[in-house]
Amino acid sequence: MEGDEVMSEPQPASAKGANIEEKQYLLRFNADTQSHLHVMDTEVCMTSCPDKICTIFCPAEVYKWEEIRMHVGYEGCHECGSCRIGCPHQNIKWVYPKGGHGIVFRLG
Ligand code: SF4
Ligand code: SF4
């Protein structure tokens, strides 16, 4: 009908396309002093994994390739478990953080 307009309600920021930094604001981390993630053999990464795929599939960007080694920023891990199955060489040892450590979700 002419003259009719459909107005959309403004959406809260959280419902819009939030970037990873905004989403991470909803998360808190209680990091252990020891990593719960271990790249077992860096040589395998160097010689057999040209795409360093863990640096792509990890939603928290925990893995960063630094020329000859893999930096593992375990403190920011979201515990999604993807690296358990995502490494094509089963080269990542993944366990849950010790009790009381790891990610905490802020709800509301
Ligand atoms: S995906 Fe696995 S083999 Fe490839 S770089 Fe990451 S840890 Fe290394
Ligand atoms: S469990 Fe998920 S968030 Fe944590 S390092 Fe693995 S892929 Fe990244």
TrEMBL record:
Pfam families: Fer4_ETF_QO. GO terms for molecular function: iron ion binding; iron-sulfur cluster binding. SUPFAM superfamilies: 4Fe-4S ferredoxins. Gene3D superfamilies: 3.30.70.20. Could be a 3Fe-4S cluster-containing protein. To ferredoxins from P.putida and C.tartarivorum, ferredoxin I from A.vinelandii, ferredoxin II from D.desulfuricans. This is Ferredoxin-like protein. It comes from Cohnella luojiensis. The lineage of its organism: Bacteria, Bacillati, Bacillota, Bacilli, Bacillales.
